[in-house]
From TrEMBL:
<dbReference type="InterPro" id="IPR010499">
    <property type="entry name" value="AraC_E-bd"/>
</dbReference>
<dbReference type="Pfam" id="PF06445">
    <property type="entry name" value="GyrI-like"/>
</dbReference>
<feature type="domain" description="HTH merR-type">
    <location>
        <begin position="4"/>
        <end position="74"/>
    </location>
</feature>
<dbReference type="InterPro" id="IPR029442">
    <property type="entry name" value="GyrI-like"/>
</dbReference>
<keyword id="KW-0238">DNA-binding</keyword>
<dbReference type="GO" id="GO:0003700">
    <property type="term" value="F:DNA-binding transcription factor activity"/>
</dbReference>
<dbReference type="GO" id="GO:0003677">
    <property type="term" value="F:DNA binding"/>
</dbReference>
<dbReference type="InterPro" id="IPR011256">
    <property type="entry name" value="Reg_factor_effector_dom_sf"/>
</dbReference>
<protein>
    <submittedName>
        <fullName>Effector-binding domain-containing protein</fullName>
    </submittedName>
</protein>
<dbReference type="InterPro" id="IPR000551">
    <property type="entry name" value="MerR-type_HTH_dom"/>
</dbReference>
<dbReference type="InterPro" id="IPR047057">
    <property type="entry name" value="MerR_fam"/>
</dbReference>
<dbReference type="InterPro" id="IPR009061">
    <property type="entry name" value="DNA-bd_dom_put_sf"/>
</dbReference>
<dbReference type="Pfam" id="PF13411">
    <property type="entry name" value="MerR_1"/>
</dbReference>
Amino acid sequence: MDDLIGIGRFSRMSRLSIKALRFYDEQGLLTPAWVDPATGYRYYRRAQAGPAEAIRALRAIDMPVGEIRDLLADDDAELTGKRLAAHRERLRARLAEQERMLRFLERLIDRGGNVMPYEVTVKQAAAVPVAGLTLHTGLATIGAAIQQGFGTVVGALGTAGVRPAGAPFVVYHDIIDEKTEGDVEICIPVPAGTTLPDGPVRYHEIPGGPVASTIHRGPYQEISPAYHVITAWIEERGAKSHGAPREIYLNDPQSVTPEELLTEVQFPIDGTPA
């Protein structure tokens, strides 16, 4: 018991807040050496300062709590090295993405908000039978949610033995920004009458009708100006949009560079503008 340190002193020693220490205890990352059964007060040993520092450092570089738990539980140095290497690659990819967004913002500012020319056309979109999955998400998680959502839909199609019948797309039912979450629907076209297994992925038909359309070439994260152009085009012509906009992914991000990605943005509209 002489080696035990109260949570307050251990917090100062480890530079982890008391709130963080309680959270890491709940998550199984850093369990107190002893908890007073009468008061619930937590005590730690000095030797736990090392793991506490590792947790603090790993959280500082955004390693998920679950991965930290697995890493600290490993006695295999080679496996630990692989886990750190995998996270290093994620950080590098994130840095590359942030640098790309900074270049995009520089171009946006230099060109007065216009990064690339967009030609808006009106066409008649056909009704599309789809395997669809609706997800509720926020701005910070939308990229991962869409990626995982497509995985779920592809898995359902595999179980049903059904092949996609067209380019995948996402329907944005709500405006999603830094303060507001909303629903998106992950869609993969399928043959009419497709039967899917029970689960969150459902078969239904996306209605057809006239749409205002444009093509965005480049990374998905730089697509916002295409929305600005289409909405301005619709307003200038006195048209009315109805229904949710959609992004149709015309090529495979696994096969082309981010600069070569092609995405069609469609806004359903009433009739044909003048």
